[in-house]
Amino acid sequence: YLTLDTKPDYMAVVMGTNLVRLSQLESITTAMYATDILPSILNQITSCRDPLAQAYLMDCIIQVFPDEFHIETLGIFLDVCPKLREKVNVRTIIQSIMERLSNYYADEMLLLDAEKEQQYKDAQIQQGGEEKALSPTKKSISENTVKKENSFQLLNSCIQNIVSTRKSTIPSKEIVRLQMALLRFTLKCYPGNMFHVNHCLASCATSLRERQSLESPVDKKQQHQHAVPPSASTTGATPSLDETTIDELEKLLSIPLESLALKVLQLDHYSDLLTFLPWENRRQVAVVMLKAVETSKSNLNELHQIEELFVILTPLILESNVPDSYSHGTFISKLEEEEKEEESQRLQQQEEEAATTQVNAEEHDKRTADLMGALGISNENRQPSSQRNLARSTLSKRSSSAFPNTNNTAALLSTAIN
Fold this sequence. Notes:
about 70% helix; about 425 residues; 18 helices; mainly alpha
């Protein structure tokens, strides 16, 4: 019998050997494995108090049983992961099952390629039979497509449950690594599925915010040295992360660029997750983005995508002391606001100058009236200065066009008005 005093290496060999022998029994079916064998093993794992034994058993289940068994019982297996001891690294367990599933789906697609499907149809035609019902090949493809979609939903739900269950103890770096594993699985099994990619980024950003909201002020003070530019710390910027988490997050943001290139600009939460990085790390991501732009050689026609591109490239354009508010998807909006503010200031300045001119004209009229009154000259028919200036300008333009060769016409008319 195995006890807590049993050496871990010996315990792993004994448990692994028993599970291998069990998996080699030819009489075991998928239904038997799902209803009897797996629930019994998982019940023993959850009741075990040794974290090392739990990790060994979970890994043995993944390695020794066939892929078809894992496909059919994925939900049952993943339901146990949040229930394991906190010292168990569930990320490695989830990564192992993801690797098995992704390899299985990749191999299956190679077997069900278009050429072999066409060969199957040709064989059916040669036998003189018409395909009225859904062929086994098409039926298999349809079933596996549904299973693949369910796999993502189950894995995502498991990760969310793990983060929720261990939200006070799980490090930020493990949150990023879990989402990174799910993102790699998504890009391999669901190429081009932007919804799944965007969901991974959104879940990562939400989990990091929730995790950082639980940090004590002491922890935040220790991490302050990794913050984004000093001015950002006073403008409501996102709290900083430790160096390991920053490196992992930078890797996560670089993964979609390798396969999606400029399509990442369609992701609503890419720039949101980018705000967790310090300014220098954002520059590294921006460099990768520029390489993706150069490689794709495609044009951007939508304003939203151009705005997202400038958000990512902001660290290469602006200095490090720029407020962090430029990194929340509002780069172009900020520029528009600045232009509107400059226009408003210009109009206000013009209004002030016009008001000053009006005051000066009124003062001039008053002084002129006082002087003419002192000399005994009538001032009843004299126009105000503002009207005389307007008349002078109008007559000057008309006289210049009517008498182009008369240089003194405008001057004489202005004198007559005065």
